[in-house]
Design goal:
359 residues; alpha/beta; D-Maltodextrin-Binding Protein, domain 2; 2 domains; 10-stranded mixed sheet; 13 helices; globular; binds (2R,3R)-2,3,4-trihydroxybutanoic acid; TRAP_DctP_sf; carbohydrate binding; signal; TRAP_DctP
Length: 359
């Protein structure tokens, strides 16, 4: 454990050094290339420009990491929270936002927040089941009918109980924000049916349900951290990947993947996390300001995400990307096989039934 903390502190220190020359005021985007947009570039020199520091005058500074691009929907939500937190705390508190995997990949950041060596992170639910197994039910294919169904479940009893389980990791799960419905991309051919996936190496998150689903569709699921994706695509380690439109467009994945198929196979939430020790150190007034800012930023981020997707699809089409609509019933039937393996995947069947019956 001591080595992990030392490694985490080294990561934080290196990130701090790199971002020392970062923008002094909140905001500030850069025109990042595709590789840089996912934090996968070897050239870390420009990474510091992606950091979005809050108001200099704030005395309570919360460092929040994400693997996503500065222009993406995660960071837009964090910028909104940065603004609201400064307003509701009368300038006392702020967020310092570190996009592009500056503070590590999603698993690293979750561990660092749990150890209290990083204040916050906003990560997809993908890696969470490796720490809290019940989260895996959220990764089942075609579990949620639409965003409204997802919000009802995630903001209700099921979501609340899942967030509370993060306490076991030293983490306060603040809320479910939106990553979105995940689409598959590749650079070889148009994917219309599951048969078109056969034999393709598809990068997935490090998530057993996603891997099992793609394997059952005939693909070779290749799990890796998001920051490794561009190198893997360039080297041919994988043929494609899958992510929501907002990630595909903001990380400029479309620059190296000419085909996007709108399979909507998983609804992917992301979770805003704060170290329990950090939150417990707030005064009552600071907790009130933090909670209010986080709740309002969640609603803002979800709205931003759905509006952004429409614009992002048009941007990609204008860039020459083939965006393919598919017959989702064919995909649902093919992916359904995973529901026969709930026991072997060690999924909480009661939770699955609760979610399915809530629609
Ligand atoms: O959380 O790893 C992924 O594909 C995630 O969707 C991405 O890092 C944003």
């Amino acid at each position: 454990m001591k080595n992990k903390i030392l490694a985490a502190l080294l990561t934080i220190t290196l990130a701090g050094v790199m971002t020392g020359c970062g923008n002094s005021s909140g905001g500030g985007n850069t025109d990042t290339s595709a590789a840089q947009a996912s934090g996968s570039t070897a050239d870390s020199g420009t990474k510091s420009e992606d950091t979005m520091l809050g108001a200099d005058s704030a005395t309570v500074r919360l460092k929040v990491g994400t693997t996503t691009a500065p222009e993406g929907h995660y960071v837009k939500g964090l910028q909104e929270m940065q603004k609201l937190l400064e307003e509701y705390s009368s300038g006392e508190m702020t967020l310092d936002i570190y996009p592009n995997s500056q503070l590590g990949n999603e698993r690293d950041m979750m561990e660092n927040v749990g150890m209290g060596v990083q204040e916050m992170c906003l990560i997809s639910t993908g890696p969470i089941p490796n720490f809290v197994s019940d989260f895996a039910v959220l990764d089942l294919p075609y579990l949620f009918e639409d965003e409204e169904h997802a919000y009802e479940v995630l903001d209700g009893e099921v979501g609340t109980s899942l967030l509370q389980q993060l306490d076991s990791q030293g983490i306060k799960g603040v809320g479910f924000w939106e990553n979105g419905f995940r689409e598959v991309t590749n650079d070889k051919k148009e994917i219309k049916t599951p048969d078109d996936l056969k034999g393709m190496k598809i990068r997935t998150m490090e998530n057993s349900v996603h891997m099992e689903t793609y394997q059952s569709l005939g693909a070779t699921a290749t799990p890796m951290a998001w920051s490794e994706i561009f190198t893997a695509l360039q080297q041919g380690t994988v043929d494609g990947q899958e992510n929501p439109i907002a990630i595909i467009e903001s990380a400029k994945v479309y620059e190296v993947q000419k085909y996007v198929s709108m399979i909507d196979i998983f609804y992917s939430p992301c979770v805003l996390m704060i170290a329990q020790s950090t939150y417990d150190g707030f005064t009552d007034e600071q907790k009130e300001a933090f909670d209010k800012a986080a709740e309002e930023a969640k609603d803002y981020q979800r709205d931003y995400s759905s509006n952004y997707n429409k614009e992002a699809i048009e941007n990609m089409k204008d860039a020459g990307v083939t965006v393919t609509e598919v017959d989702k019933e064919v995909w649902k039937d093919a992916a359904n096989a995973v529901y026969d393996r709930l026991d072997s995947l060690k999924l909480n069947k009661e939770l699955v039934e609760k979610i399915q019956s809530s629609n």
